[in-house]
Amino acid sequence: MSTVGKQIVAGLLFSLLVLVFLAISFFYLYPLEDWSLLWEVQMMDIPGGVFILVVTLLLGVGFGIQSGLTNKKQLGEIEDALMQVEQGRTVSIPEATTTELQQVWKKVDTLRKHIADQTRYSQKLANEKAEEQEKRIQEIVSQERNRLARELHDSVSQQLFAASMLMSAITETPSSTRSLHEEKQLGMVEEMIHQSQLEMRALLLHLRPVALKGKNLQEGMKELLVELSQKVPLDIEWKVEDMPLDKGVEDHLFRILQESVSNTLRHAKATSLDVRLIKRESIIILRVVDDGQGFDVNESKVTSSYGLQNMRERAIEIGGTFKIISVPNKGTRLEVKVPVIEDVGEKND
Q: Where in 114-209 does DSSP place strands (E)?
């Protein structure tokens, strides 16, 4: 039963009890000689006894409705406040009319401050962890990539160049012993070597770190998506809004995007990909949607997937929430929401 319904029933019962008590007290002090007067005497063309009963019940119903609506409004305000607390938003504390409600609102405000402190602390740790890891990992990755690029350039590229020069010399040297078919095959080999040289040059140009080295999240996302649109047969659309973010939050969101896009390319068999990075009020939203084959999110092998667990843990580390919706043959939608905790007004708490 709803709050209003309970208050109406309580009001009716209370009004009936009051009526019975007053009636017994009145007739005990002033007993009637003729009880039929209760029905013969009329008020507004209604027997007096019935009129008193109806008025009493109406008063009880009115009191119950008024009390129920008041309680419902107060519970609604508390529910809205808890929802705001869950989303990391600032809560406006209304003026409480009772001591009990004042205590409830104090608890809500204490909970809000506690969650805000926890979120801020988690984001601070993630930021410090990301900066420390990036310095250590980027140095190792950069050294390894440079070593690999040097080896490819000094070995494979040089060998391809030598093979190209040799093939050019062979094809340019006239020979009466080679048939037309052999000449054609030599030309195909020369073209293949030339194409391999071009691909090797492209590989050397792309041997670079994939993390946000020297870029913010928006720049890294755009660069990644532009490169993907040029290399993979996907219709990629994106909307990336400019917003200031801590380094730790940027790093985690970018790596979640990388993991999500990687899963799409490897498993989804999608034809389109839509990426959004937007800010609504004090919530950062990263959304990745594809039209691929989808999957059943309740399967054990899916729920235990390392990629999904990694993305979920990264979202939690920065105080966010991770949600994924997928329907077989309908596509997949991934959404990460991260609250932005403002420092204004918190220092004096």
A: none
